[in-house]
């Protein structure tokens, strides 16, 4: 069986006819396998949903208990129709997984979803899974994206807080994964004071803490006077009335896009922090080298760069041209 | 380099002026000499470095990265220096100092530069690479002016902003004596001496504008194609400034040596040999140098041709009229052949001046300067008191068709020429020229005339249409008296084109198009 008849893009997303399921479908389907809880990958309204326990928890927290007709926790290799599927850590956010699809005869395909190779104290590290076809994201699929050690960015934030001790630092970070990543980095860098979080972050931070991730003391950033120098909020909060309670704050944003100045300027931030939960160019290309798949499929992002790299490495590669994945986490 | 790079990055995203001042002040307090001085000069744009071109950078990057990936990257980032800083492969980061980077950009020769830049990039991390490339492309753009620099320095607790302003022009990067002073050391007294004064500039003009003015109210002098400078000698401190106040003394020790006077003079910096002014290209060899070798000092001796005095023997002359300043200047004895005074041109009418302008005695003259006799020396570019009337000739390549003997000194030679342009298969006479060539050229032309005469009409010889000359002229009028229908103003032979075949001379239509 050819790889592109085991799994191929449809309007609803990547579809596996042998197993009768979609992976990270963009619209409601009968049977969905979900890589992780970001809203562009995990949507409500499906029939049966299979994902890691954490991803199912996160979907429930974000979409309510009725987000799917039935759920199943991914646990070891599982037979679905004519194929076997298994979930492996992707290192992206808590619960994020790659999905391996193994037919009885034919090439093994690994759909990595969103993944990251840099150490992240809030989730399990990426597990390289040998395969014939590797489906990679390309959010940062250009050589300009080489992210610094995440701890250097925490140090940059703390240095700015020391430079401007009278100014509160408001850091934009997405609710699932990035906010907790930033907080745990700052803690790792030795910052022990209470950190204020915007109300929209509370549920997921509590969930992370419940799963054993140490975020230190968090206080709500809801009072008129927020008694913390460091405040974490989702990016949408910066356009709301909420932000007006802070006088002359230093506005920062934690994202891989901050690696490029024009992008940071578009955001209008004073303190760009290059903290990403996606693979950068060196780790993306190193992953392709390490796995040495006989074929690479490229999903969302800057496909051109990855395709060119594969061309130079003489690895067959093609873009899947899936639309609808918007990199919520970045 | 790391501290400098993070400062630049921070400044690039910091909109508030106060926050910028604080960031820079803290950087200056924490950074040793001479790095902090270089950094300050780089931010305010007062650092003269060898400039690296985008094409050189592209070439360097192409050695390290696939060109297609580079193109995709540049497309995404939109800034070449930033793209290269981001894609450059990481090397062994050993954090060279900013001084090392500045040194490299100040002293490396053109040929060795690309390899030196690559080697430096290999030693830097990504944000340092960007800082270095911004430095190398002269494009820091952090929104930090010299005025803000003085405010940041004043914030360090030493001298105040006015204290700093007083001697700012006398200071040069890396400002070590300045930082000593701020730390409680001695005031760099010498820096306060020989300050730069803002210069007075002229506006362009033309005959039409001049005709409305009375020639009697004005002085005129040649406009030399050198560099406008301000030469200041103040109690033993001598400085040569460009007209923007940049101290260029280091590159001209010969001129500094000759400045044995007490005052502030305005003039032209020129390379001159035995009284002859050399073309601008020769002066260029002396510019932008940290030091000059003996060889260059001997082969390209520099000097000054002065045309104004701002301060003389302790007296500020700037509010006095030009004719009085000029009288002081003419009476001054500079005691050195390297320094002389620009002489005034004799003219009664603007047409007289136009003729002089059209036929200057040297090729390094680029026009005439016209200055009101009663003008005070004021800073900036006021319209009215000073004009520059540049030589901006139009030129055509024409064929010599007739020659006639000259008069006076030239009576032995054929020096009056009629030239023509092609109109279909025939040459139509378009004008006459009597000057523009040297005596040596005159003899050659005469020889050509004698050898190529086809017919004689009295004193006039008709020539075989063989020799092309470049004719320069100041303007063009329609004329019914000329067969061609056009008349040139002040035509002269600007070049003899022995090399050019007559068939390739210009057509009458070219001239008509200039009308
Ligand atoms: Zn994601
Ligand atoms: Zn995604």
TrEMBL record, chain A:
InterPro entries: MBL (IPR050698), RibonucZ/Hydroxyglut_hydro (IPR036866), Xnuc_lig_assoc (IPR026360). Gene3D superfamilies: Ribonuclease Z/Hydroxyacylglutathione hydrolase-like (3.60.15.10). The keyword Disulfide bond does not apply. It is an enzyme of class 3 (hydrolase). The keyword Hydrolase applies. It comes from the Bacteria. Keywords: Exonuclease, Hydrolase, Ligase, Nuclease. Its EC number is 3.1.-.-. GO terms for molecular function: exonuclease activity; ligase activity; RNA endonuclease activity. PANTHER family: BLL1145 PROTEIN, CLEAVAGE AND POLYADENYLATION SPECIFICITY FACTOR FAMILY MEMBER. This is Ligase-associated DNA damage response exonuclease. It comes from Paracoccus aestuariivivens. The lineage of its organism: Bacteria, Pseudomonadati, Pseudomonadota, Alphaproteobacteria, Rhodobacterales.
Automatic annotation (TrEMBL), chain B:
Keywords: ATP-binding, Cell cycle, Cell division, DNA damage, DNA recombination, DNA repair, DNA replication, Ligase, Magnesium, Metal-binding, Nucleotide-binding. It catalyses: ATP + (deoxyribonucleotide)n-3'-hydroxyl + 5'-phospho-(deoxyribonucleotide)m = (deoxyribonucleotide)n+m + AMP + diphosphate. CDD domains: Adenylation_DNA_ligase_Bac1 (cd07897), OBF_DNA_ligase_Arch_LigB (cd07972). SUPFAM superfamilies: DNA ligase/mRNA capping enzyme, catalytic domain, Nucleic acid-binding proteins. Its EC number is 6.5.1.1. Residues 304-423 form the ATP-dependent DNA ligase family profile domain. One of its GO terms (molecular function) is ATP binding. The keyword Magnesium applies. One of its GO terms (biological process) is DNA repair. Pfam families: DNA_ligase_A_C (PF04679), DNA_ligase_A_M (PF01068). It is an enzyme of class 6 (ligase). This is DNA ligase (ATP). It comes from Paracoccus aestuariivivens.
């Amino acid at each position: 069986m050819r790889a592109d008849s085991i799994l191929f893009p449809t309007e609803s997303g990547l579809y596996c006819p042998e197993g009768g399921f979609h992976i990270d479908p963009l619209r409601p389907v009968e049977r969905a396998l979900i890589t992780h809880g970001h809203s562009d990958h995990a949507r409500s309204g499906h029939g049966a949903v299979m994902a890691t326990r954490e991803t199912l928890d996160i979907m429930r927290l974000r979409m309510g208990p009725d987000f799917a007709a039935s759920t199943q926790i991914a646990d070891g290799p599982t037979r679905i129709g004519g194929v076997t599927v298994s979930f492996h850590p992707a290192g992206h956010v808590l619960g994020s997984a790659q999905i391996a699809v193994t037919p009885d005869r034919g090439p093994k395909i690994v759909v990595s979803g969103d993944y990251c190779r840099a150490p992240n104290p809030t989730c399990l590290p990426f597990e390289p899974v040998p395969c014939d076809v590797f489906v990679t994201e390309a959010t940062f699929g250009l050589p300009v994206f080489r992210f610094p050690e995440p701890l250097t960015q925490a140090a940059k934030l703390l240095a700015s807080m020391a430079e401007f001790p009278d100014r509160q630092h408001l850091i934009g970070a997405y609710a699932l994964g990035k906010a907790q990543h930033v907080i745990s980095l700052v803690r790792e860098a030795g910052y022990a004071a209470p950190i204020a979080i915007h109300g929209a972050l509370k549920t997921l931070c509590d969930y992370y803490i419940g799963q054993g991730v140490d975020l230190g003391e968090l206080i709500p950033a809801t009072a008129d006077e927020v008694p913390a120098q460091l405040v974490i909020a989702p990016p949408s909060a910066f356009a709301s009335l909420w932000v007006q309670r802070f006088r002359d704050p230093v506005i920062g944003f934690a994202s891989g896009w901050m690696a490029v100045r024009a992008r940071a300027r578009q955001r209008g931030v004073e303190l760009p922090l290059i903290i990403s939960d996606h693979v950068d160019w060196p780790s993306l290309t190193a992953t392709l080298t390490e796995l040495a798949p006989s074929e690479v499929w490229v999903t969302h992002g800057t496909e051109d760069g990855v395709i060119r790299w594969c061309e130079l490495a003489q690895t067959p590669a093609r873009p899947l041209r899936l639309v609808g994945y918007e990199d919520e986490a970045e | 380099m790391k501290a400098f790079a993070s400062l630049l990055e921070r400044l690039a995203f910091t909109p508030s002026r106060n926050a910028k001042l604080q960031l820079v002040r803290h950087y200056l307090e924490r950074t040793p000499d001479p790095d902090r001085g270089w950094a300050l000069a780089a931010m305010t744009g007062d650092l003269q470095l060898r400039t690296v071109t985008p094409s050189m950078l592209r070439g360097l990057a192409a050695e390290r990265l696939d060109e297609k990936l580079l193109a995709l990257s540049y497309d995404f980032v939109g800034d070449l220096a930033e793209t290269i800083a981001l894609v450059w492969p990481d090397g062994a980061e050993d954090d060279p100092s900013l001084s090392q980077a500045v040194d490299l950009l100040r002293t490396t020769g053109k040929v060795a530069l690309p390899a030196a830049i690559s080697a430096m990039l290999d030693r830097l991390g990504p944000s340092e690479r960007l800082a270095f490339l911004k430095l190398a492309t002269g494009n820091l753009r952090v929104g930090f002016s010299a005025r803000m620099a003085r405010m940041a320095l004043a914030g360090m607790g030493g001298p105040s902003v006015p204290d700093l302003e007083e001697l700012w022009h006398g200071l040069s990067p890396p400002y070590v004596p300045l930082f000593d002073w701020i730390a409680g050391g001695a005031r760099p007294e010498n820096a306060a001496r020989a300050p730069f004064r803002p210069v007075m500039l002229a506006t362009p003009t033309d005959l039409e504008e001049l005709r409305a003015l009375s020639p009697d109210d004005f002085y005129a002098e040649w406009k030399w194609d050198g560099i406008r400078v301000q030469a200041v000698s103040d109690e033993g401190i001598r400085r040569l400034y460009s007209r923007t106040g940049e101290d260029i003394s280091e590159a001209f020790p010969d001129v500094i040596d000759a400045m044995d006077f007490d005052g502030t003079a305005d003039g032209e910096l020129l390379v001159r040999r035995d009284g002859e002014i050399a073309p601008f290209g020769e002066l260029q060899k002396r510019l932008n140098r940290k030091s000059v070798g003996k060889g260059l000092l001997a082969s390209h001796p520099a000097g000054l041709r002065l045309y104004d005095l701002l301060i003389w023997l302790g007296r500020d002359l700037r509010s006095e009229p030009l004719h009085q300043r000029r009288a002081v200047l003419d009476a001054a004895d500079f005691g050195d052949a390297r320094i002389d005074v620009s002489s005034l041109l004799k003219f009664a009418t603007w047409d007289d001046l136009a003729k002089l302008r059209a036929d200057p005695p040297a090729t390094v003259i680029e026009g005439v300067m016209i200055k009101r006799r009663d003008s005070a020396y004021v800073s900036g570019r006021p319209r009215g008191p000073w004009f520059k009337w540049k030589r901006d000739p139009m030129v055509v390549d024409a064929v010599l068709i007739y020659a006639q003997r000259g008069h006076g000194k030239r009576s032995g030679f054929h020096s009056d020429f009629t030239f023509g342009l092609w109109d279909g298969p025939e040459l139509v006479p378009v004008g006459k020229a009597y000057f523009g060539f040297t005596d040596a050229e005159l003899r050659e032309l005469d020889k050509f005339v004698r050898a190529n005469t086809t017919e004689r009409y009295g004193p006039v010889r008709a020539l075989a249409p063989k020799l092309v000359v470049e004719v320069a002229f100041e303007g063009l009028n329609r004329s019914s008296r000329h067969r061609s229908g056009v008349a040139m103003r002040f035509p002269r032979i600007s070049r003899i084109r022995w090399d050019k075949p007559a068939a390739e001379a210009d057509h009458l239509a070219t001239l008509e198009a200039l009308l």
